[in-house]
Amino acid sequence: MSYGNHQRSFEPCIKIDNVSLKENLQTWYPATIEELSEVMGMLKLAREDIVDCSAEIIHLISRREELICCTKKLSGLLSPIRRVPDKILCQIFLHCCAENDLRYRKPDLKISFPSDDIGYDLNMGDFVENPEVLEQETKLSSLIQLYLDRSKNHPLTLDLYVEKWEFPFDHPSLGLLTQESNRWKYLAFRGQVFAMFRRPPAQERLSFPSLETVDLDMGVFGWGPWGVGALEEFFLASNINDLRFDAGRNIGWVTTTDYLSQTSTLPTLSSLVVINHESLKLADSLERVMSSLITPSLLELVLEQRNEKAAEYSRQSFHHVNQFFGRSQLRSLTSLVIQGLYIKDQDIVMLLRQVPSLQNLSIHSPNFPDLLSSNPISKFFIKRLHAGRQSPLVEPLVPKLRELTLKVTTQGFDSSSFVDTIASRWLPDETSTRKPGLVCLRLVELHLPGTVDAEPYERLKQFDEAGLRVVVKCQGVDGYIV
Fold first, then answer.
1. In the chain, where the domains are located
2. What are the residue ranges of helices labelled H in 199-281?
3. Which neighbouring-strand residues pair with 291?
């Protein structure tokens, strides 16, 4: 781009400020043939000038924008911040970034900065007596210390992944983070052992006054025999709102008496998810979590078994779940998901009797019907959900139910009882006859195995057209029935 004198590329072909032209335009005398010819020539030139002038205007506007942009860039070169060292400039830039605007990558450390907290995503790999590895760990620890110092009292979001079983408990980077445990707000842990938080006998208990969300995923590697005491630290963090617990295949190594020294009350916990997808002893994981917690404010509970081979080993699950329900007095529970657990239909009804506030219920039968002596989603269970067949002195089961999802894995589902139950729950008219406290069902999903005859479910279509969201789906050719 040239910044010298600008040479005009456009010159008008006709001068509209000509004095004689103005005089001729004001005359009343008729024009001669020669004058008419001259006027036509002037019109032609004027039209050409208009086209050229328009092109010149576009060119000048574009040039003006280029000059403005260039001026800003040149002015930026004179800014004092240009003289700030690169390291400090990088920290300033990272601090000013909005959430997810930038991710600063290192071989073993990735750090992101949300707007209201400081986040760390660490991948704990090999830690051996190797000069190069030790040098990298030293740099990593220095960088973490720098961010901890500069973030001051901001809450911390941690995503920790332990890659190796032989992970050292005195890892310097981890030590820096545990020293700031009072600032932890969100913790996601994935890996082999949770004993990385094990304290020496003389060390004080870790403090988590700001911890709100804990996501523990040992589903890939397992627990090992040393991680139990460390978990107790988080159960004693009384401000936790969300707890997700994905048990690993080796949780059975630890006995119940060794799991937690006492029952812990989490007064603010609103969401609890317990998942098992490896262990053949689901009762072990349920026993350890259900028997160790009291959650009076719980709103959402998810109990899920992902291993099909574990059904015959999980028949004691109900005992621990029922004790948890009674001990916690779940009068505020609004959402319950039971997936893949071997729980009999009578047991499910007994649980639902304890949660009259329930609004969303989802039950998935275990996907291994050959091992079941009783189908949990049975005719008995469906009839107990009916809103009008109980005694007037008995409150209907889950009277506030608004959403119902059932996934059946066995043949012989009683379609007639199901349709009658849904009809009893469809009460859109507030003036209709209903028991006190009974609300209108708004959504129902039914998943069936194999190919199913659609005729018994035809009655549900009128409810769907009236406003009830109805989905009936099977694995047959057509798929959706309603």
1. 19-81
2. 228-235, 256-259
3. none
- For 357-375, the pLDDT digits (tens) are 999 999 998 876 555 556 7
Residue from 276, 405, 401 nearest 342 by CA: 276
Q: How far is CA 281 from the centre of its chain?
A: 29
Q: What are the angstrom distances between the C-alpha of 236 and each of 18, 231, 300, 301?
A: 95, 9, 20, 19
Spatial CA neighbour of 388 closest among 397, 380, 379? 397
* pLDDT (0 to 100) of residue 235: 64
| 118: Cβ contacts below 8 Å, ≥ 6 apart | 147, 151, 154, 155, 156, 157
Beta carbons of 280 and 312 less than 8 angstroms apart: no
Across 58-82, average pLDDT: 85
Q: What is the mean pLDDT of residues 109-133?
A: 48
C-alpha closest to that of 183 among 159, 160, 208, 206: 208
The candidate with the shortest Cα–Cα distance to 351, out of 398, 400, 288, 290, is: 398
CB proximity list for 248: less than 8 A, separation 6 or greater: 218, 219, 220, 221, 222, 223, 278, 279
- Residue position matching structure tokens 């099909």: 308
- More confident call, 148 vs 131: 148
Interatomic CA distance for residues 174 and 178, integer angstroms: 6
Calpha distance 373→411 (Å, rounded): 13
DSSP 8-state assignment for residue 427: -
Q: What is the DSSP letter of 224?
A: -
Tokens of 462: 């009128």
